[in-house]
Design a protein that fits this description.
This protein has helices at residues 2-15, 69-77, 111-127, 154-171, 223-232, 242-252, 258-261; strands spanning 19-24, 34-36, 49-53, 60-65, 80-85, 98-105, 133-136, 142-147, 176-177, 189-192, 220-221, 299-307, 310-317, 320-327, 335-340, 350-362, 367-373, 378-387, 390-395. It is α+β, with helices and mostly antiparallel strands. The protein has two domains: 2-289, Alpha-Beta Complex (DNA primase, PRIM domain); 299-398, no CATH class. The strands form three sheets. The chain has an eight-stranded antiparallel beta barrel with strand order 12-13-14-15-19-18-17-16. Strands 9-10-6-8-7-11 form a six-stranded mixed beta sheet. Strands 1, 2, 3, 4 and 5 form a five-stranded antiparallel beta sheet that branches. α1 crosses α2 (69-77), α1 (2-15) packs across α6 and α3 (111-127) crosses α5 (223-232). The relative contact order is 0.12.
Length: 404
């Protein structure tokens, strides 16, 4: 509470009108913790709340909005050590005010590797005409923000962030990954572009973190500081405890202030604006470059279960459940999938589940580009009809060309 009261003048402008997820530590930072989206029942009436529909339906989350010192201190008093705000402000929660890149070090590397990737990311964004600003996460990573503060949507910012991440991966495959598979992250830095979604929150600037052995602070850093830490190979230069953070911000002011007001627009033709000459940043995996909906409720639940003859993929779409029998198991390449009748409650052993987002296409068109968030079934896949009753399931890169 003392820390948040001290940094309130610098922190509150960054929380103004933004719904937040709280990470609460009821037994202090060494005890168990939990994320809380919905305002708890004991929330005082004077605390501002903003309702956001649940993605899977079934009501709303009443997010807390921390726009004043009193609310900030109340949140701290109930063990909300970490504050994770939306990238958008209420009521326009579909309009992010920035693009964020969350740099997460894999096993074998640390925050110094993230500093190197952050500098590469800054240079690429500058080539695209965007200024960016960095902060340490308070844990092991670095986050880079490109402020926009102009009308946009997650359907534009997420494909852009993904395309940037994938281009950097192709340029520096030994340092960077852009896919979420943990097996590929060893000794590399994962650029998490998926944070640019209306249902996700990122730890806020000046928030305390409690992920390491001591609660460090997510603090803005100048690019020169990242360069100095990288040159020295000294990760300790990028960590601040609460008292040190208070002293730093009192002396340096809010290094993140430009993120609030700097107006920028995503480059309209960013796929062709990357140097060196002759190298072009292609948008994310073919059709994924098109606007991908990430609206609350835009994703549907899917399950993958064992069935006689293969696996059964079931996707809840609107008021019906659609099913496909995937022959020969989960494909590495194209495999046949025959349409089957939806039978609620039928099925064998569950092998995967998660959300499936329809990027484009439809069953009526005979093809669907889907983005899955499961463990076995993850990323961009295509279901395409090849016969009246036969479909093929393939990863996007292995799929036949889709009609536009």
């Amino acid at each position: 509470m003392d820390y948040y009261e001290a940094v309130a003048p610098y922190l509150l402008p960054h929380l103004q009108d933004r719904p937040v997820t709280l990470k609460r530590y009821p037994d202090e930072t060494t005890g168990p913790a939990f994320y809380e989206k919905d305002a708890p029942a004991f929330t005082p009436a004077w605390v501002r709340k903003f309702a956001v529909p649940r993605r899977g339906g079934g009501g709303e989350f009443r997010y807390i909005v921390i726009s004043d010192r009193r609310t900030l201190l109340w949140a701290a008093s109930v063990g909300a050590v970490e504050i994770h705000p939306f990238l958008a402000r209420a009521p326009a929660v579909e309009q992010p005010t920035a693009v964020v890149f969350d740099l997460d070090p894999g096993e074998g590397v640390n925050i110094i590797a993230c500093a190197r990737v952050a500098l590469r990311l800054r240079d690429l964004l500058e080539q695209l005409g965007l200024r960016s600003f960095a902060k340490v996460s308070g844990s092991r990573g670095v986050q880079v923000y490109a402020p926009l503060n102009t009308p946009t949507s997650y359907a534009a910012t997420q494909p852009f962030a993904r395309a940037v991440a994938e281009w950097l991966h192709r340029e520096h495959p030994d340092e960077i990954v852009a896919e979420m598979t943990r097996a590929e992250r060893r000794n590399k830095v994962f650029i998490d572009w998926s944070q640019n979604a209306d249902y996700k929150t990122t730890v806020g600037v000046y928030s305390v973190r409690a992920k390491l052995h001591r609660p460090f602070v997510s603090l803005p850093v100048a690019w020169q500081e990242l360069q100095a830490a990288l040159a020295a190979g000294n990760s300790s230069q990028l960590y601040w405890l609460a008292d040190a953070a208070i002293a730093r911000v009192s002396q340096a002011g809010d290094l993140f202030a430009p993120v609030l007001k700097l107006k920028q627009k995503l480059p309209e033709a960013f796929a062709a604006q990357v140097s060196p000459p002759g190298k072009v940043m292609r948008a994310a995996s073919g059709a994924a470059a098109k606007s991908r909906s990430s609206e609350q409720g835009g994703r549907r639940r899917f399950t993958l279960s064992t069935r006689r003859g293969g696996l059964e993929l079931r996707i809840a779409m609107h008021d019906a459940t659609q099913c496909w029998l995937i022959h020969a198991g989960l494909p590495r390449k194209r495999q046949a999938a025959g349409a089957t009748e939806a039978k609620p409650g039928a099925g064998g052993t569950m092998v995967d589940q998660g959300t499936a987002e329809l990027v484009e296409g439809s069953e009526a068109k005979g093809w669907m580009h889907l983005f899955f968030s499961g463990d076995a079934l993850r990323g961009d896949w295509v279901l395409a009809r090849v016969e009246p009753s036969e479909w093929r399931l393939a990863r996007l890169g292995d799929a036949p060309a889709m009609p536009l």
